[in-house]
Amino acid sequence: MPCARGFDVLKAVDGLPEGSASRSRLRREVLDLARDEGLVEAAYSYRIVALDAPAGEWLRAGGEAFHAPWLLPESGRLTALACASCTIGAGIERRVASLVAARRASRALALDQLGNELLFEVSRIAQDRMLADARRRALTMAGELRPGDPGLALDAQAAVLRLADAAAIGIELNAGLLMRPHKSTSMVLGVGIDLPAVSWSRCQHCRSRARCRHGAAVAAAA
Amino acid sequence: MTTGNSFDIRIIGERINPGFKSTRALFDNSDIPGIQALAIRQVEAGAVYLNVNVGSQAMTDRPFLTDVIQAIQDVVDVPLSFDVPNTELFELCLKTYDRDAAGGELPIVNSITEHRWDAMDLYREHPFKVMVMASESVVDGVAKNNKTAEDIASTARRAALRLRDDCGMPMDHIYIDLSVSAIIADTEGLNRATLDAVRLIGSDPDLEGLHMTGGLSNIGQQLPAKAADGSDLKHCLENAFLTLAVPFGFDTVLGTPWRGYHPLPEDDYVLTTYRHFLDQKGSQALRAVRKFYRA
User: Fold this and answer.
1) Origin, by domain of life (chain A) (predicted)?
2) pLDDT for the residue numbered B76
3) For residues B223 and B184, is the Cβ–Cβ distance under 8 A?
4) I want to staple A104 with a disulfide (CB 3.0 to 4.6 A). Which of A99, B9, B151, B199 is the partner?
């Protein structure tokens, strides 16, 4: 089960667009804060798990079952699921709480926003690693679902985390399906033979899509 | 992300280059899986070659350059094109390149010019295909920039025949790189010269089989995102150039595979404006550029 931890993810978000001068200053402050106080403990774990049975509306892998028909490819053959979990640890959420308690709301919000960006970046790194891994096995990877998003119910969360061995990087799930550390995420991607690129995106139903900085950054990079 | 190219062209994926901000971040972090994923995405989007340019890091960190080449070849089976600043680094790239991993295909040395020909010394020991910059020539021993179609075409012809006759290189192993200038600063008719050179080279019977290529990302530099008709100006300019160049033999683009290049209809606003721009020079050309984004 591949996993990685302790890599520098702050550097990767350092060059992102910063907006107005005051936002830019605030962002610089929270970047320095995160670095100086060692608030980020980035980690990811993943596993590419072969399907237990031919792909159908229910996908069965590693003894778990997922109702994820969006992952069924238009052509090619789905043979496995890539399950991943990612976190940036609990340092940022604790510091956000202390900033809120100290009535430093704008700094707290900026630090929280930075935490989201860092988590996106850890997800991106994990996905890149899985893609390279799949390709080395002469497999393709397509589609991305996260428990709770359209296409995959939230109650799939526990199974995804089990398959990704999220416990190895310290992610726990409580009875309300809330992950701890809060700044954690999980995902499932389709893996198989000659899978075509999917025509859908987990973002397409998101109400924040038009004003999402992450989406804009992805579009700009393309 | 747009995909699907409807031109009959080959794409050399250009994204492994620190000129792209997102790629620079991968290099800055030595993010090898990220670079591998970028290679895979380009191939899945239709790239038949991948250009590898690690920027100035190639000069200071040679193990990183070889790691990148090996990592890319570990996950994709298309051949690579190497864009490095000197012959010593070309040699390192060629030695690192695993031809078997690319289905036996030769890599491309990107690039040589008439006055930077020394990379050809490597050809016997490490065969490759080559990209020749036709925008530069040597006159009386001095390098100069070509500004007319005739100069560009004669440089391309001279170089191609020299490669064929001196090195025994097949014509279809030669890629003539035609500079596609930014229109915003093109007051000397360089776009016109490039397109006319494409016609001259494409109609030269001695050069049959040779490829013509160029990077398109310069053409729309510093222009607004939207054209006056609301279309994506930079992308439409790339397509306008290709619409005029592909029928005359421009068959390879050093570009982003998911850009989705396609021919523009004759009445397309940007194509019509580009045609008008091509007929202008000096301040008239600058005025013509404004028509792209002002109604």
Assistant:
1) Bacteria
2) 96
3) yes
4) A99
